Amino acid sequence: MMAFLNPTFISAYLIILLFGCAESEAPNILKFNEVTNKFAWNLYKEVKQPSENTILSPISLQLLLDILLQGANGTTAAEIARVLQHEADDKTILNAYKNFLEDLDHKDKTTEFKTATAIAVDQSFPLSEVDRMNQHLNQYFKTDIKKYDFKENPKNSSDMINAWVKDHTEGEIETLLPEGSIDSSTEMVMVSGTVFKGEWKHKFNKKNTVVERFHITRNESRSVNMMGLTGGRFRYLWNSDHELQIVELPYKEKEFRMIIILPDNGLAELERKFTYEDLSELINSIKETSVDVFLPRFKIKKSVDLVNGLKKMGMLTAFSRYADFSKMTNSSISVSKVMQKAMIVVKEKGTRAAAGSGITLTAKALPPQMVCNSPFLYIIFKGDTILFIGSFLKPPHKINR
């Protein structure tokens, strides 16, 4: 079995997941972890692209979506909540956010995780009960609402928001909003910045890093700097049902760890049938044992448009003219863009990762036009009873005026 861990035999991609709070006593934290991890897995499944590296920060987006949920109503709120895996007005989750964000104030010399959110609105935006909204968002999410001049000075507004994201990702995400993201129709922009830095509990010795082949497919391979960690004891499992290996690499701060899953027969085949429940069960099954680990040194930087992924997950109304954000404003707005830029660097000493997420809301478009200039069906009802039914296929040769 150990032969599979020799870098010569690594012939599949790696799934890499950061899990915090491996063991928690508080029920609200347990529930928070479950809904957060389910959302993360579902988002990954919908957003990942075949044959492309992926890096996402689900928690960075999740924070923004839950803030958005606070201003949503009706079907809009129900769909967002369903995507987030919890009820629309779940005080347990809100209090868990509060505790989660307050706990981030702790920082040691070897591990750092921080995240922040901000809401920018146009200076003419009529926020209903703005003081109450500010108090509510500050209480649970530590976020503020600030006004910008989107309509008269969109570029300056975009530059200021990008500067905020850059500052809150320690310079890793320089330009979250591309040019043209803000225009005269923009009413609100929600952003978050997230940073993780962690030193391995057991560092890879640079002397053990050698150039090896990484097998992308059976017929394609590339050279990588393969780090080696030998002679150690880690939580590890080889699972015959799913034909994969799983190992846990701890960071110095005991709450943080990296889980690596290496399928025997390719990642695409595993992902096709693998569920969140499978993932959770495997992670809970790993046991400490002697194992040698070989991991490529790598860096990934990725920009992702999240709109289609969220629509596939069931968040549809928020993007449509039927969007209802009446808890936030009387203005007629809908979500127009959801984006994220993220990066990760994995080296012998540890890991560095950052993400900036953004949601823009714009004034709804004019109602669609239905121009009956081609054959159509028509029906006349009395109550639920059809009285007449017909179709109009072509007009007469002569037009009566």
Can you walk through the features of this model?
It is globular, with a radius of gyration of 25 Å. Helix 5 (130-141) links the parallel strand 2 (111-122) and strand 3. With 401 residues, the chain is of the alpha+beta class. Strands 1, 5, 6, 7, 8 and 9 form a 6-stranded antiparallel β-sheet that branches. A 6-stranded mixed β-sheet has the order 3-2-4-12-11-10, with helices on both faces. The protein has a two-stranded antiparallel sheet with strand order 13-14. Helix 1 (27-47) packs across helix 4 (91-103) and helix 2 (58-70) packs antiparallel against helix 3 (74-83). The protein has 9 helices and 14 strands.
Summarize this structure briefly:
With 401 residues, the protein is of the alpha+beta class. Helix content is 27%, strand content 34%. This is Serpin domain-containing protein.
> Roughly how many Å apart are the termini?
86 Å
Total DSSP E strands: 14
What number is the mean pLDDT? 85
Oligomer: single chain
List the helices and strands and how they pair.
Layout: E1 15-20, H1 27-47, H2 58-70, H3 74-83, H4 91-103, E2 111-122, H5 130-141, E3 145-148, H6 154-168, E4 186-199, E5 210-215, E6 221-239, E7 244-250, E8 256-263, H7 267-273, H8 276-285, E9 287-296, E10 298-305, H9 307-312, E11 333-346, E12 350-363, E13 376-382, E14 385-392
Parallel strand pairs: 2-3
Antiparallel strand pairs: 1-8, 2-4, 4-12, 5-6, 6-7, 6-9, 7-8, 10-11, 11-12, 13-14
Helix pairs in contact: 1-4, 2-3
